[in-house]
Amino acid sequence: MEKTINIFKELTTLDSTSGFENEVANYLISNLSPYADEIKRDNLGGVYAIRKSKNVNAKTVMIAAHMDEVGFIITKIMPNGFLKFEPLGGFRDDVLLAQKITVTTIEGKKFVGVIPSIAKHFTDGNSKNIKISDMSIDVGASSEEEVRSWGINEGDYATPKTEFEKLGEHRLMSKAFDNRYGCAIITELFEELKNEELDCNLVVCATVQEEVGLRGAEIAANLINPDLCLVVDCSPANDIDGGSKSNGRLGDGFLVRLIDRTMVLRANLREEIISIAKENNIKYQYFTSPGGTDAGAIHKAGIGIPTAVIGICGRYIHTHNSIIDLRDYLSAKDIIKNILRKVDNNFINNIRL
Ligand SMILES: [Zn+2]
Fold this sequence. Notes:
- The chain is α/β, with parallel strands linked by helices.
- The protein has helices spanning 2-13, 22-32, 144-149, 177-192, 215-224, 267-279, 295-298, 326-342, 345-352, and strands at residues 38-41, 47-51, 59-66, 71-77, 83-88, 100-104, 110-114, 157-160, 165-167, 171-174, 200-207, 228-231, 234-236, 254-259, 284-288, 307-314, 322-325.
- Zinc ion is lined by residues 66, 178-179, 210, 233-234.
């Protein structure tokens, strides 16, 4: 478990937002390469690690994780040295005030800053309705000139800055579990399956620009054209009130995502996943969401690609401090391994019906 926790620490500490996925891409390339027959890139930065089956007629399974986290792009440097920005992905306005930010320049230099919050002394109580468009980042400079002398310019990117923490026995807290969860699981699966003779070709793929609209996923689907795709992503837990009707509860297993804004899980694939979970005593929970994942773009590519999301839920995603449960992560890893061991021509024919 120490190894898994360390992978999460390394991955959530990297800064990669939509359109700026290089840090995570480089991490994945160096960790996947030792076990890959081939590493591919697409022209927008997506990463693919491919392992071929000995069966020459093997079907291809793609496991897709997006690399980008929600972040910001710097749009303007103010005369007083503050940085204006646009969000990359969805933040609630009220989670950003007084939070630490890392600004990364094109040369990879890092600067720490904070999103200013006006002191209570100067407001008539609690400040209401401060919009992201009115916010800025204070990096400690006194002027535009000073900011530029450090090498910070318009078009550079910024990401939440947080400490990685282990909470209790089973839980981790950090930024960006959405979707370093997916990046961690493809890293571990690819290594852990290195000595298994699978009857399918395995492609683990890391996509770009999910948080701004599933943009890299479409490219991935067209490039690999798999017979089955499993998307690995982290979705919002809704279990804070402790109610038993909560949709997505930490510790209740991996998510069987029945429906969201972008895809309906087809019944034949759902039944395969559930029966494999039951056979192997793997904990799962049903999940629905008003959001979407890369699966939304992938299942519509080509002549249609059978696709399921194997997710976990995380509390407080799209903020500086999200929490996941390692037991859910292990359930997700377990179900994917067992699905991969079962995929052959028959399996693929069944889920196409
Ligand atoms: Zn995500």
